[in-house]
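Forum: Protein Structure Q&A
Topic: Joint prediction for protein chains with partners

I've read a bunch of threads here and the consensus seems to be that you should model interacting components together rather than docking separate models afterwards. I'd like to see that in practice. Below is the full input, 471 residues plus whatever partners are listed. Could one of the regulars post the assembled result?
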Amino acid sequence: MNVREERCGKLIIVTASDIGSSNQKLGHPNQDAVAFCCLGEDLILSVSDGVGSCNKAEFGSRFAVDSSVKLFQEIKNGSLPFETDIIAEKLVEFWRSSISDSNIDDYCATLKVVFKIFNHVKVFSLGDGFVAITSDGLNLISPAEETCFTNETNCLSAQSSGRDLWTADFYLDTFKSYVIFCCTDGIANGILPGKEINLVEEIENDISANELRHALEDFLNDVSNYCFDDKTVGVVKYEH
Amino acid sequence: MGLNSYVARELRALPIFVLADASGSMYGEKINELNLALREMLNSLNNVDDIRGKFKLSVISFGGSVKIVQPLADIEGLVLSELTAIGYTPMGEAFDVVKGLIEDRNIVSSRSYFPTIVLISDGIPTDCPDFIYKSKNYAGWKQLNNLHSGERSSKSQRLALGIGADADFSMLKAFINNTEIPVIKSKDAGGISKFFRWVTMSTVARMNSINPNVTSVVPPIFDVDAEDIII
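Posted by a regular:
Agreed with the consensus. Here's the joint model:
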């Protein structure tokens, strides 16, 4: 399991990614990717799941999260406005331009991104997995994909446009605690249906910043007993 | 409570629906062999270790009428009822029934992998319109079309065995509707168990693959003659 923990002022960010047993057994790499970047108390958190049937899925997911970070840096340095439509288009454009290969559909990947600039959070979601935010009784969660069966998903592909991304805004009261939670389907499929917000609220209310890393590692290990896909989660916790 | 209390402690299922011809022509050795082969498959699936989920099984018979002999259930501890052979061959109605089951998310949950439908028949469907049967243009058969075009049933993997000279292989090929999956032909009841071993091997291979939703099959490597595999 690849775990990273970083503190930025009162924020703690923990990401964890673990290869699924099926990929491991077949000698394939972990096809999930996660990235974050913290500048002051502004941040970006992004997770992506490379689509298993694509030849270069692990690169597609890495390009997706790296493109998100690059976009955040451009927003922060004033090169791009913090506007939903523009960000959505740029997320797809940056991802596509990272791929020098002519066959973009070898790199398909889902994408979950959260940008936080001061108290304004923008959420972008394409494909399975979910993003959730909780803060003092308020919450937001990206909608579950209405797919017929498991492991079917929408994704970044040659045909994608910014309009394909689900987007939402959330305004934080920075005098209150909050949690931002992003995960790929390996985690989402391992959570009891309808309990996603409860899980994030538990992280907000009952797990201290010091306990977060250990609690997430323990959680991933438990999910691995029932779900054999790659698993990736990123959590931002702010304690006021 | 702890984060672990939110873990869904249930493996994802790969549902298998067996559509078994239990018409009068199956009476005797064929139905006996089919009952034995189903039990063997159930036993083999129960003994598979180290897979990405669990198997669920349903058996639907069509002989005189369509019966859900075994509703979709986890295979662990399952005991199958014996099939008995009687009456005509309402295969189209059986297609409607299996489609209804697959489309119902309370029966086949969205957490499941693509289902497998296994069809075994030794004759012609008696509820197929005459003009379709005569022209062998099964693309026009409403019940088969509905199965192929259902939002969820269209994604199922379909496997078929035709037993004896009277089996309608054009129809079985149309049922599979996938040029990469052969129709298996058996001249008598002896091939039923071999066919189910192949079904078991293919289903286990799918469950162990990187993406169990890819509905490929293992090559039919059992000891059938080349003419018993119809591409």
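Residues 23-230 of chain B form a domain with the Rossmann fold fold (CATH 3.40.50.410).
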